Amino acid sequence: MNTEFNAPTSRIPDAEHLYIHLLREVRAHVAAFSVPPVIIGVHRGGAWVAERLHQDLGLSEPLSTIDISFYRDDFSTTGIRTNVKTTDVPVDLDGRAVILCDDILNSGRSVRAALNEIFDFGRPARVDLAVLFDRGGRELPMAARFVGGGSEFDAAYKLVLERDSSNRFCFRVPLRQNAAVEAS
Predict the structure, then answer these.
(1) Which of 36, 56, 115, 161 is at 20 to 30 A from 3, Cα to Cα?
(2) CB 13 within 8 A of CB 21
(3) How far is the C-alpha of 16 from the C-alpha of 14, rounded, in Å?
(4) CA distances (Å), 104 to each of 36, 68, 82, 124, 160, in order?
């Protein structure tokens, strides 16, 4: 029996603390607009971040959420995911400022997919990206304007946003499947 315990070499970020920092950054930005921006969250974790921002900012316009499953560049190799969610953009995006929310920024590929879907709904005046945590590892030239926090994070582990019954955030840190195979 292998009793060795493997843990990330990186410090696990405090998701709730990161959210408070992100909220401060976004609140200062939203206050400068005469017409509040449209908040759009990427399912799953980004939608949770967007939902909290929307509520904490007291925005009256409906929250928008998108599922990027069919816009991912790995769709042809991974197939349809079993957890596809509904995209809901109940506002006109033409000429509007948009804040796109996601939980983790890593390669930039999810952001590219989200932008493709957003432009299917209209042509925003601008799109700013807000993320809870930027873990580095960019494969595409994407950068968030609003970041709760960030640092390079152990590539052998995923960061998965979770929330409890009181809507507080935390990260679960499972070992990536390919890393588990390499370790055995």
Answers:
(1) 161
(2) no
(3) 6
(4) 24, 14, 21, 23, 8
* Calculated CA dihedral for residues 97, 103, 105, 111, nearest 10 degrees: -50
| Domain range annotation of the chain | 15-153
The CA–CA distances, whole Å, from 86 to 23, 64, 96, 111, 141 equal: 25, 10, 22, 18, 28
Cα distance between residue 161 and residue 5, in whole Å: 22
Please state, in angstroms and rounded to a whole number, the distance separating the CA atoms of residues 40 and 178. 32
Report field, pTM of the whole predicted structure over 0.90: no
Phi, psi of 53 (to 5 degrees): -60, -45
End-to-end CA distance of the chain: 12
Q: What CATH number has the domain spanning 15-153?
A: 3.40.50.2020
Q: Once rounded to an integer, what is the mean pLDDT over residues 69-98? A: 77
- Taking residues 30-37, report their average pLDDT: 92
State mean pLDDT over 12-17: 95
Report the sign of the C-alpha dihedral through residues 67, 51, 23, 156, in that order.
Answer: negative
Q: In the numeric block, which tokens belong to residue 178?
A: 């390919």
